[in-house]
Amino acid sequence: MSDPWRNPYTQAAVVLPAEPPGDGDPEPVTDPDAPRARVWRPVVLLCVISAVLAGTLGGAVGYAMAVRGGVAGGGLAAGAGALDPPAAAVRPPESLAGVAERVSPSVVTIRVSGPQGGVGSGFVVSQDGYVITNHHVVEGAARTALAVVFADGTATPATLVGQDPESDLAVLKVEKEGLIAVDLGDSDAVAVGDPLLAFGSPLALANTVTQGIVSALDRTIQSDQSGQVRYYAAIQTDAAINQGNSGGPLVDAAGRVVGVNAVIKSVTGDQQTAGNIGIAFAIPINQAKRVSQEIIATGKARRTVIGAEVGNASAGLTGGVRLETVQANGPASAAGLRAGDVVTRLDHHPLNDAIDLVALVRKFAPGSVVTVEYRRGSTAQTASVTLAADAQ
C-alpha cells in the first residue's frame, strides 16, 4: 500500500523477521531519537576528584615544611610552645656575623653631656672596666659628664682616667659586673687587603657594624682638631666610618682589635659636615695599647722623639726630610746624625715630607731602635737610632 505522507527520496526500510520471545523477558526497546550517553562526564569527574586530592595533600606538605623551617613559628604556634630559632639566625663563629656577635657586647656608645656634649664610641679592654676611646671624643668633658651605653641598652656613668691629646687617646673607667673585654690583635701583623669590621655609633646610630679592608698601612697624616695638631701613622680602611665612630674598634676577621677609629678623609674641610667617602684612618692598636697602659699607670703618656727639628728637603732633591737642627745628646745626635742631613727612610719607610718622619716616630715606643737611611751631601749612609721620650 502506498503511503501518501512518505518522502519519495527516503530509502525503503528493511524489516527483519522477529526473534522468538524468550523466557518471559520483555523485548528491549530502543528509541532511535533518544540522545546518546556522553562519555566525557566520568573523565571530568575523575579530574575534579584528582585535583581536590592533590590540593589537600600539597597543602599538608607545605604546612609541614613551613613549620619545620620556622615560617609558621609566629602567632600560629604560640599556643603550642616556643619553637627553636630559625636556622638562618645561626652563623658560624668565624663568619663576619659571628665576629660581630662576639665583639658587639664589648663596644660602647659614649655620651658627653654639657655645652660640648656629643656622641662617640669606645670599647672595653679589661674586665675591671677600662674603656679606650679618642681624646677628641671626651675633650673638654667634666669627669661627671660622661656615660657609656652598652649594646644591650644598659647605661652606666664613666670617669675619665686620663687622656693624651698628642696621640688622640683617652681611657675611661666604668663600674659594671659581667664586662666582656675585647681581644687585642697585633697591628704590625695586618696586611693590605685584609678584611676589617668597624664598630661604633656613627651619627648616633648605636650598634652599627660596617665592613671594609685594609687600604694602606702607615699612612702618615696630620690632623688639626680644636687647635690640637696630631700626627698619625695610621691604618687606612675603606670601611664606612662617620662622626660618632671615633674611638670605636677596628677589628680583623678573627675578631681581634687592630685599630682605634680616629679620623676620616672628606671632600669638605668642615668637620661638622664631613662624611664617609671610603677613606678613614685608625690608630694602630699596638700604639693605642702602649699609650693606654701608660695613662692607666701614670695618668699621662710619653711622647716619642728623635731629637731633631725637621723640614722638607730642598727643591730638586728626590724625597727625604732635612734635619734643620739636631738636639745635643739626643737620639739623632747619639747616632751620628747632623744638621743638614736628609733622612730618606725610617724603618724602611720612604719619607717625602716632614709629617712622615714625625708621624712614624710617634708610632714607636720610647727605647725602640729604628734604622735611618740618610744622605750627607752625595753620600748615602745608614744609622741605628734609639728613640727617646720627650722630656716634657
TrEMBL record:
Choose any GO biological process term that the UniProt entry carries and state it.
Answer: proteolysis
What are the alphabetically sorted keywords of the record?
Hydrolase, Membrane, Protease, Transmembrane, Transmembrane helix
User: Is the keyword Protease in the record?
Assistant: yes
E.C. code = 3.4.21.-
A GO MF label: serine-type endopeptidase activity
Q: What class of enzyme is it?
A: hydrolase
Its domain of life? Answer: Bacteria
Residue span of region Disordered = 15-34
Span of domain PDZ: 304-378
Regions crossing the membrane: 43-66
- Protein's UniProt keywords contain Cell membrane: no
InterPro entries referenced in this protein's UniProt entry, alphabetically:
Chloro_Bact_Ser_Proteases (IPR051201), PDZ (IPR001478), PDZ_sf (IPR036034), Peptidase_S1_PA (IPR009003), Peptidase_S1C (IPR001940)
What's the protein here called?
Answer: Serine protease PepD
Organism per entry: Catenuloplanes indicus
